[in-house]
Amino acid sequence: MGWNASDIPDQSGRTAVVTGANSGIGYVTARELARRGARVVLACRSEERGTDAVDRLLFEVPGAAVELRLLDLADLKSVRAFAHGLDADRVDLLVNNAGVMALPYSTTADGFEMQFGVNHLGHFALTGLLLPRILPVPDARVVTVSSPGHALGQIDLGDLGGERHYRRWVAYGRSKSANLLFVHELARRLAVAGSPVTSAAAHPGYAATNLSAVGPELAGRRLVGLVMAAGNRLIAQSAAAGALPVLFAATAPGVHPDAFIGTRWQGWRGPPAPSFRMPWTLNDAAAKRLWEESERLTGVSYEGLD
């Protein structure tokens, strides 16, 4: 049968932050961590949807230690406000889950291309700002959610936002490649610093969430949206199944630094298993340059790992 949610070790006494926790993979991840005893902070952009998620979670897991804090990854002011206002002396687990996919060209509040800005830069800044509360925790983990779609686009350090020739799916692939390069470089820097904190990546395979509907909706591409919806119904696995690789990377014993956990069957579905990744996501020089550019663009430096 493979690893499932019942295999999650006891999380009592641990604090977890999950971005994009109001629905889909993020919600299931938050719910299962709470079910195993973690205090879970649901980091959500919408107060209304976040409040609904908290209510739903408490109905499913009565007595769970959960709370909502607003976080808009498309606005670095919001990222800083979230980090500074977080009422937690330690963060045992950070799950960088929130994301956008194949959007028409648009920019964040800080002027970055939206997919790169939300999927990579927002999480880069959040992780760096929370790092002082992560590093002292011996068994802490930072799990960043990428995608098999990273194969659609190799990062272009000369055109990070793809402004010159924007193509929505290539931009998505580049942002997911950036996620894996971030995980790779964070793992390297943690090792150099002698830190036991684990940086790992995961992907949910093809899971039925609302992520695939947003891009076509914003672009007014009704037919594409209908095809995506049909795929969710007929082909995709459930959000609960899609969350298992993320939960495995976050909690299973023996997850090694820079691991990429996906699904067993061709990256589409199935229980958690090591995932294929494109060679460019293991390029040390590209990872270092992306890190340096990310520090410059966000104004966030990683004290103790520089």
UniProtKB/TrEMBL annotation:
What is a GO molecular function of this protein? oxidoreductase activity
Which superkingdom, per the lineage? Bacteria
Q: What is its EC number?
A: 1.-.-.-
Fetch the InterPro entries from UniProt. Answer: NAD(P)-bd_dom_sf (IPR036291), SDR_fam (IPR002347)
**Keywords, sorted A to Z:** Oxidoreductase
Going by the record, the broad EC class of this enzyme is oxidoreductase
Q: Which Pfam families match?
A: adh_short (PF00106)
CDD domains (alphabetical): retinol-DH_like_SDR_c_like (cd05327)
Note the Gene3D superfamilies from the entry. Answer: NAD(P)-binding Rossmann-like Domain
The similarity annotation says: Belongs to the short-chain dehydrogenases/reductases (SDR) family.
Which protein is depicted? Putative oxidoreductase
